[in-house]
Amino acid sequence: GGAAVLLEDHDSAIRRGATILGWISGVGNTLSTAPEHGLGVSPEAYQAAVASALQEAGLETRELGFVIAHGSGTRKGDGAELAALTELLAEDKVPVAALKAQTGHMGAASDLAEIIFGLRSASINRVPGTCNFSGAEAAFSTLMISKLPQPASKPYFLSTSLGIGGQISTVVVERA
Question: For residue 33, which of 22, 44, 25 has the smallest C-alpha distance?
């Protein structure tokens, strides 16, 4: 798979009459090095990456319109991610979506493509649906995950990316 976006200084984009789709509001990166997590990541490292992105954006989780989870379809990786999201979003009803069931895992392009899909969804005030979702395991039942697209009313979303070896990158994006 492939994906590309043009990142540009705001004033430069305005001068050349570009259509601005959104802004990167915050980023967070961590590394989960604990060997017991194998191909997964530790929920604590995941939460630290999210906290860093939110802090840089000056936001709290309740201000997010939705979260696009990495959701690669592995029991261990998805379980760690869902455990982290369950704790992070415990007080706030923020919708969560995973898109790889619709696109397949596009390798290195997946994460950028999911930001693009998130921008498109946010631009039409929709939370993407999670294809083939039928219900969460009991431990994750408090998360707001839907098979179908849902309305979104807030201008920010969080996209998360996990890599083999424990890399965790998160980005908060604001729709234009």
Answer: 44
Q: How far lies 53's CA from each of 67, 76, 156, in Å?
A: 13, 24, 12
Strand partners, 29: 169
CB of 145 closer than 8 Å to CB of 95 = yes
Residues constituting the chain: 176
What's the whole-model pTM score? Answer: 0.93
CB atoms within 10 A of CB 34: 12
Query: Which tokens hold the place of 24?
Result: 């990167």
Q: For residue 143, which amino acid is it?
A: L
The SS3 assignment for 35 reads helix
Strand-by-strand arrangement of the 22-31 sheet = 22-31, 167-175, 156-162, 64-69, 95-98, 144-145
pLDDT along the chain (176 residues), means of 10: 90 96 97 68 92 98 97 85 93 94 84 95 96 92 95 96 89 97
In the chain, the domains with their CATH numbers are 10-175 (3.40.47.10)
CA–CA gap between residue 162 and residue 154 (Å, rounded): 25
Residue 115: name the closest of 11, 5, 29, 20 by CA.
5
